[in-house]
Amino acid sequence: MNKILITRKLPDEVVKPLKDKFEIKMWHSDDVQMTYEELKSEAKDVQAIWTMLSDKVDRALIESLPNLKVISNLGVGYNNIDVEAAKEHGVIVTNTPGVLTETTADLTFSLLLASARRITEAERDLRAGFWKSRSPMQYTGMDVFGATLGIIGMGRIGEAVARRAKGFDMNVLYHNRTRKIEAEKEFGFTYAELDALLQESDFIVLLTPLTPETKGLIGERELDLMKETATIINVARGGIIDEKALYDALKTNKIWAAGLDVFETEPVPMDNPLLTLPNVTVLPHIGSASVRTRLAMMQMNVEAIEAVFENKEPENRVV
Ligand code: DGY
Hints:
Blueprint: E1 3-6, H1 12-19, E2 23-26, H2 36-42, E3 48-52, H3 59-63, E4 70-74, H4 83-88, E5 92-94, H5 101-116, H6 119-127, E6 148-152, H7 156-167, E7 171-175, H8 181-187, E8 190-191, H9 194-200, E9 203-206, H10 220-225, E10 231-234, H11 243-251, E11 257-260, E12 280-282, H12 291-309
Parallel strand pairs: 1-2, 1-3, 3-4, 4-5, 6-7, 6-9, 7-8, 9-10, 10-11, 11-12
Helix pairs in contact: 1-12, 5-7
């Protein structure tokens, strides 16, 4: 029987269909994640690994697993996996796009609204007993309705965010490797070069994958181009923004606020200086975290693993 390593404890109903066909090794915790060394040792005799975004599957790991046939990653992003090394060694990699598009767009918009209207800051203060009086400029934020939204990375989630923005009468700019001419016509989005988008937008949403080209895409120069009243939202990957440059820009009020669902290091170390700033709204990487969507993503992993061992082409094959 082929063996599967599941790197986090997943709900029984999700794993059950695999039990008749595979020998399952499932990590004991849905909270404490495997270390790299634990992953390496647990994976040594398996044919399939069902990974989470937090599992680093690098070349050394792939090369230490001669029996490995498939890595099925729970998430649309797969920057945690060395896909080139997988390809070279004939290891199939799959991901879970599509089913999470609307859920992630909902979260993106929630974070945008929360950052604009200082919602978590105000709630924190109220709970801590700091609401002693009401004054006219207290907790005043930025208007979303009618503002300009700049989306960097106009894939499926970008389009879903842009559709929501239309309901808020926002002017939508986007920057992408390729123009989306059809969507431009259908929804009235406008293509902009990166610098122009940064200069003109009130809200900037990052939705690009993390690749060598996008690593550090938003640094000091780019933050300097933004309006003093602008807010940046990152729901993609932490490494796309230079966190040190972001901290400096927020601390010195070069930009107005940030909403972050992702960080360079996750889980975020509590000494990350961004956590000290009131104008940063933070979330623990929950873009796709609705019950229905997470179950649908897991179902895609199950189907991909089954397909590989039935010698069928899995849907959502990355390499
Ligand atoms: C993904 O699946 O890559 C997203 O980051 C989920 O939130």
